[in-house]
Structure formats: structure tokens, C-alpha cells
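In this section we walk through a basic example: taking a raw amino acid sequence and producing a predicted 3D structure, encoded as C-alpha cells. The instruction is simple. Fold the sequence below.
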Amino acid sequence: LDMTSTVSDSLQALIGMHHIQMKNDSVIKHKKNVMIDASAIAKGYAVDVAAEILNRLGCENYMVEIGGEVATRGQNPRDQNWRIGIDRPIDDPTASKRELQLIVELSGQSLATSGNYRQFYIDKQTGKKYAHTINPATGKPVKHSLLSASIVTGDCMTADAYATACMVMGMVKSMDLMKKHPNMEGCFIYDSKEGIQIAYSEGFKKYIAK
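The resulting C-alpha cell sequence is shown next.
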């Protein structure tokens, strides 16, 4: 993370989908050092694949979860919508001290959450904490008050991708983004002088468990 500007600039020159071309069944890289990292959508995509298999088998009620990304259909064994917890964003790399910030009820929707409270790096020399989310525009870890972003939409891969994007953009821009996507709702947990706060899009309210 303590990179010189020269190294950072050289890495920045490799960022962007314009360096990659899809041709038939092949992926062509215009620069040999370009790599594809699908971690922002991998778990969400895997959830969708598993859910589609269940759909083909005629399963009408299920909840698929992989690493916190979720797809739902129908109802749970209690004939209620599926209840999914959104973690309180506290520093907990091992997930051994999990606390719930709120619970949402879903049926037919997918939920994905992205945050920097589990995956982060602490410089042993300075003690400074760095977020694991990198802003592609700067090549540096994000620095803003947003602690986690949870997105509800139709498919989990899309929810996963937008949750990660929101962690880069920050809360204000993320709230504006939700207004432009009527089929997508977001819940954003952020830090403030008064402590941890929550903001969510207007349509997200209907998912919050009473």
C-alpha cells in the first residue's frame, strides 16, 4: 500500500475494461499484464447459479446464501418471508463477534452487502488501517464514512456488483444512484460524530422487519 507514485501510475495504466475484448469464446487482453478480478461479483453469481438450479428443479421455496450474499424465493418453513440479518459494521476479521444492525424480510429478491469492516489491512509500522476496497480512479483504498452497503434487487450478481460500487462511491453518491434505479434499493451504514448511523432509499423501508 505504501507505493511510490511511479508504481501506482503504472498500475493505473492497467485498469479498465477497455483493455479487454470479448471475441467469440475468447477473452483478448490488449496489455499482457492486465488481470481480471471477479471478486466483486463472484459470490453473487454463484448464488444465482445455485438458485437457477433450484428453479429448474421446481423448488418454490428456498434461500441460497454464499458468504453473506443471498437469493430468496417463496417462504421459509414458518410460511413467512425469509428473514436476513445485516451485520453491524464492527471491526471483526474472523466474524466471531457478529452483531445484527437490522433484519430484512425478502421473498423473490436478492441481497448483497459489501463493507470494509472484515477485510482490511493494518500497517504494522504505523498502525494505520486501510480499507480493502480500492478506488479505481485513484488506485488507493477508499476514504469516506461509509462502512457497509446493502443492495436489494432481482438477481444477486447485480446486487453484489452495485454493493461494491457503492463502497467506492460513498453514501451521498450511492443514495443518488438508488434514485436512478427504481428496481434497486439500498441500505447504507456510515460513521458519524454521533456514532454509527443508517440511511436507506425510500423503497428499502418495506423490507425492514417490524
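Looking at the output, two observations stand out. The chain is about 20% helix and 35% strand. Helices lie at 5-12, 42-56, 156-169, 171-180. In the next section we compare this with other chains.
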